[in-house]
Specification:
It is a single chain. The protein has two domains: 133 residues, Leucine Dehydrogenase, chain A, domain 1 (Rossmann fold); 159 residues, Rossmann fold, CATH 3.40.50. It is 47% helix and 16% strand. It contains 15 helices and twelve strands. The protein has a seven-stranded mixed sheet, with helices on both faces. A five-stranded mixed sheet has the order 1-2-4-3-5. Strand 3, helix 3 and strand 4 form a beta-alpha-beta unit. The chain starts with a helix and ends with a helix. The structure holds glutamic acid. Glutamic acid binds next to strand 3 and helix 13.
């Protein structure tokens, strides 16, 4: 099954739970628009490379399309269909007035020079020009992109339309970015974890955590969880896995992030070279209290789900759990905070950035922290309450709330 088929299982289940009509289901299950396009790039050595770019706009009943741009060699239209759908339900669950979209390029950005990357990003923006815009579709960073790529997108779009900071979010601070945007997804993961711990009666103070993925989401989640008393005992990225029963020393990571809040955090090998190495494939099944998948999709399948040894899984990544993985966790009594809840901090602060760019005053760091926490707590509590009322798990409850909100908006707007 593809990623979008996996996601359909969760969405269809919510639709059944809401007793939705076939017409309502068809409307929400069909993406508004799917675009696939060529992106020619003249390499620095003069050769020509043609990449494939995508943007899927899933639904805009609740507001303009919103979602990241992912640059990764493994992506295709099916990936973006699933991720765009997740964005629709994520924005609905945290109740920010956006719809859902996602796009990107099938490429390895680390193999490109800065000049090549700039040409690629600006080429992509030109291709997307007819369908993006501050009131239409607002891209943001995702895997393989960050503030610099958003600056280039804003520049290319502004060339054609005049100064348009609100066409993208996740920009560098000096170009209208929002303080705390780079750490927002990780912070949201930590807030959701804290709330989930209280929900299941696990003391976060002293709890042990394993984190898969040490990019923007994983590294900031580690720092924020440590700040809340947790012990980060194992981490991995694509190249390395390190662990320490007493807790990994995150001071170097904290320093690097303080010195360059918008830059990439250090790699696992750079940050934890002295700690014990172990097999990357064993990260999720470490004997810890909390596991945070914060890398790619589909990693908790039926086998991994059955082999987990934790009490709580907090999904920092998008779509990390297959339906079989979900069932295995449920059978094992493991609580899973679903991606559309756990990693919604990023798009929440994107909303603050967009709103600030569009006429309001820019948000201060303190305001962002306070509001982000409030949004995440409200969304978690609503999800936990719904799970209690319906006698179901957090994922099912989250999708029911989100699908219901989008269905309601769609019904009010008409077709
Ligand atoms: N890429 C992030 C996500 O998957 C953020 C999207 C946004 O801010 O629009 O939620």
């Amino acid at each position: 099954m593809g990623l979008s088929d996996d996601l359909d299982v969760f969405v269809s289940d919510a639709m059944r739970g809401l007793a939705m009509s076939d017409d309502e289901c068809r409307l929400l299950n069909t993406p508004f628009r799917e675009v696939s396009f060529e992106v020619p790039l003249r390499r620095d050595d003069g050769s020509l490379h043609v990449f494939r770019g995508y943007r899927v706009q899933h639904d805009r009943a609740r507001g303009p399309f919103k979602g990241g741009m992912r640059f990764h060699p493994g992506v295709d239209l099916d990936h973006f269909r699933a991720f765009a759908t997740l964005m629709t339900y994520k924005t609905a669950l945290v109740d920010v007035p956006f719809g859902g979209a996602k796009g990107g390029v099938a490429c390895d950005p680390t193999s490109l020079s800065a000049a090549e990357l700039e040409r690629l990003v600006k080429g992509v923006t030109q291709r997307l020009d007819p369908i993006i815009g501050p009131d239409d579709d607002i891209p943001a960073p995702d895997m393989g992109t960050g503030p610099q790529e958003m600056a280039w997108m804003m520049d290319a779009y502004s060339d054609a339309h005049g100064y348009s900071p609100s066409v993208v979010t996740g920009k560098p601070l000096v170009l209208g970015g929002c303080p705390g945007r780079a750490s927002a997804t990780g912070t949201g993961v930590a807030v959701a974890t804290e709330r989930a711990c209280a929900h299941i009666g696990l003391d976060l103070d002293g709890a042990t955590v394993a984190i898969q993925g040490f990019g923007n989401v994983g590294a900031h989640a580690a720092l924020q969880l440590r700040a809340r008393g947790a012990r980060i005992v194992a981490v991995s990225d694509v190249d390395d896995a390190r662990r320490s029963a007493g807790g990994l020393d995150l001071d170097d990571v904290a320093r690097a992030v303080r010195e360059d809040p918008e830059g990439d955090p250090p790699t696992v090998a750079e940050a934890f070279g002295d700690a014990e190495p172990f097999d990357i494939g064993d990260l999720l099944t470490q004997d810890v209290d909390i596991v945070v998948p914060a890398a790619i999709g589909g990693v908790i399948d039926g086998d991994v789900g059955a082999a987990l040894r934790c009490r709580l899984v907090v999904e920092g990544a998008n779509n990390p759990t297959t339906p079989e993985g979900h069932a295995a966790m449920r059978d094992a009594g493991i609580t899973a905070v679903p991606d559309i809840l756990a990693n919604a901090g990023g798009v929440t602060v994107s909303y603050f950035e967009w709103a600030g760019n569009r006429g309001g005053r820019p948000w201060s760091a303190a305001q962002v922290d306070e509001e982000l926490e409030a949004v995440m707590v409200r969304a978690f509590d609503a999800t936990a309450d719904r799970a209690g009322e319906d006698g179901t798990d957090l994922r099912t409850a989250a999708f029911r709330i989100a699908v219901d909100r989008v269905r309601h908006a769609q019904a009010l707007r008409g077709v």
